[in-house]
Amino acid sequence: MNHTVKDAAFLPFEPLKQTNSVINEPRLVRWLLIAAALGFLSLFLLLPLLSVFVEALRKGAGAYFAAFADPETLASIKLTFIAAAIAVPLNLVFGLSAAWAITKFEFRGKQLLITMIDLPFSVSPVVAGLIFVLIFGAQGWAQPWFGDHIGKVLFSTPGIVLATIFVTFPFIARELIPLMQEQGTEDEQAALSLGATGWQTFTRVTLPNIKWALLYGVLLCNARAMGEFGAVSVVSGHIRGLTNTMPLHIEILYNEYQFVSAFAVASLLALLAMVTLAVKSFLEWRYADQLAATRRH
Questions:
Q1: Is the distance from CB of 252 to CB of 243 less than 8 angstroms?
Q2: Which three-class secondary structure state does DSSP give residue 286?
Q3: How many Cα neighbours within 13 Å face the side chain of 238?
Q4: Is the pLDDT of residue 18 over 60?
Q5: I want to staple 212 with a disulfide (CB 3.0 to 4.6 A). Which of 165, 227, 241, 287 is the partner?
Q6: Is the pTM of the predicted complex or chain greater than 0.90?
Q7: How many Cβ atoms sit within 10 Å of the Cβ of residue 231?
């Protein structure tokens, strides 16, 4: 197994084997380390999460559920799910295609493709949004053609979808590439030698071998798509009821001192995050089993 440091960052957490040096540490040291870790998690993760629900329910369940009856809130929830529903499948196709090309073929520009996949991790989301403004803005070079043939991109749903795709497209590819590199091409070559078509090889050999990593990448991609703020904020125009996603709507409500409504919408994102975390833990467990099986073979 030859993972780079960059690839290792995208593998699920695997517990380290205990060594004698750890076991022989004084009990006080171990308890201090555990207490420090739990204290850090409580202060910076659990306490803020708890405060979201406390503030959301501060005026009772009636006020909490009334926040979701607001048409602008419902529009922001709908737009968030629409953007994710479009961006995630497109990134799924791109991630599968990119991972397949990188791990199964040798071609010129392969390293450039890998570098471009990592680009959204090194570019600020706000800068990404500004790039779309330069391209599709009133003075942008692409706007005349798009305006005549497709319609307005900025300050509308297409711009939000484009920004969401940009910031999320590495997640699926980066989950698949390390696993597919480790699996190699032997299974596919065996299937092809037995007369299977390319599509049969993909659906019956490759896809079953990567299904847990694929689901893991889709989960991370969807979580980022629903929670994205920076790039979407630049291209949305903050048009209430039309181009505000949930994160943007939360900011508006908070700035207008509608704290219960703001925290109510935030609690919905928090609930989605907790569901994502639960599914992520399950997929990590299955993905770790898949990696272990791959290493044994």
A1: no
A2: helix
A3: 11
A4: no
A5: 287
A6: no
A7: 28
